[in-house]
Amino acid sequence: MLDIQINRTTAPKPRPDQASLGFGRHFTDHMFVMDYDEGRGWHDARIEPYHALTLDPAAIVLHYAQESFEGMKAYRTADGRVTLFRPEMNARRFAGTNRRMCIPEIPEEDFVQAVKALVDIDRDWVPTAPDTSLYLRPFAIATEAQLGVKPSASYQFLVIASPSGAYYESGLDPVKIYVEDEYIRAAPGLTGFAKCGGNYAASLAGQVKAHDLGYSQVLWLDGVERKYVEEVGSMNCFFVIDGVVRTAACTGTVLPGVTRDSCMRLLRDWGCTVDDQTRLSIDELMDAARTGRLEEVFGTGTAAVISPVGQLYYEGETVPVRDGKTGALTQRLYDTLTGIQYGRLADPYGWVTEV
Ligand code: COI
To answer: Beta 352-354 vs 82-85: how paired, if at all?
Structure first.
């Protein structure tokens, strides 16, 4: 259990307009910080007024990207409570990322305690408008100042919070996806399963290309053969083909999403056949789209929630999905998941934790 020192701000910021929050652009009054030094371990857990960091220009994170992060949300229920959704899953995934990035372990209960402490002090910042939430960004950075390539001897673990609306500018309207056949995001043995900044840096060139062509996201193919569909980078991806819901297996190259896991649980409880083992080739996917057997496509993620996909582009060919309209299963997942998260529906799974 952390002993968290609290230093409250004396200059609270004006609150942003809830009608135009956007995603990740505004930040609350406080942040959680904890330091690590070799020989001493994690120490000095504290909440401070939100402020810029002071880092030595030689800090390892700035050169070799030794860092890890998480994405989660605090929700405002209709009766005014503030809740988190499966925070222990983020804590577990963060621990897995940190192991891969050689960042010293943060006990899962300390991670959850830190997140809850920040949400508690900034609870007034959890927005109330429909489909808004307080997006939470826990992250760890390597702070040692030296230019040799090695794990840092010192780190900071921080949590910041951002009142946010929908991740995509199109809101909940179906997004257009560009299937990337040149760059790759992950390969066996690399860091695809981990939530580390390097994965996202490597994805930018493909994303810029897709944006220039009018697509909002990139669907990544596997890094060995560029043949099997994997994920969208900011979301896991699901495809309904011939009545079977398919998504890529989490075998090292795909991020194990909390929303992905929750959707699979809901779908199976509704009696749907979910196949998260058989690899789906891009040829099979395009063929299913051409022949009308691709019933629905949607992405899942903490930031993106459930995001319908209305169009796919691959090697010069564009195929519509459900004529660009949201499918019934996609809508049901969205309604059920957000219903549980915002307390409109019962939570039979014990997913929701009150702060
Ligand atoms: C999330 O869904 O929370 C993510 O981290 C995806 C993206 C915003 C990086």
So the answer is: antiparallel
How many residues can be counted in the chain?
355
Token pair 């995509």 in the structure block, residue: 168
From 164, 151, 165, select the one nearest 68 (Cα to Cα).
Answer: 151
CA of 145 from ligand 1 middle (Å) equals 28
Distance 238 CA to ligand 1 centre (A): 17
- pTM greater than the 0.90 cutoff: yes
Q: Whose CA is nearest to atom 5 of ligand 1?
A: 71
Question: For domain 175-341, which CATH number applies: 3.20.10.10, 3.30.70.120, 3.30.450.20, 3.90.700.10?
Answer: 3.20.10.10
From first to last of its 355 residues, the chain has per-residue pLDDT tens of: 999 999 999 999 999 999 989 999 999 999 999 999 999 999 999 999 999 999 999 999 999 999 999 999 999 999 999 999 999 999 999 999 999 999 999 999 999 999 999 999 999 999 999 999 999 999 999 999 999 999 999 999 999 999 999 887 766 788 899 999 999 999 999 999 999 999 999 999 999 999 999 998 999 999 999 999 999 878 999 999 999 999 999 999 999 999 999 999 999 999 999 999 999 999 999 999 999 999 999 999 998 899 999 999 999 999 999 888 889 999 999 999 999 999 999 999 999 999 9
Residue 10 in tokens: 């004396």
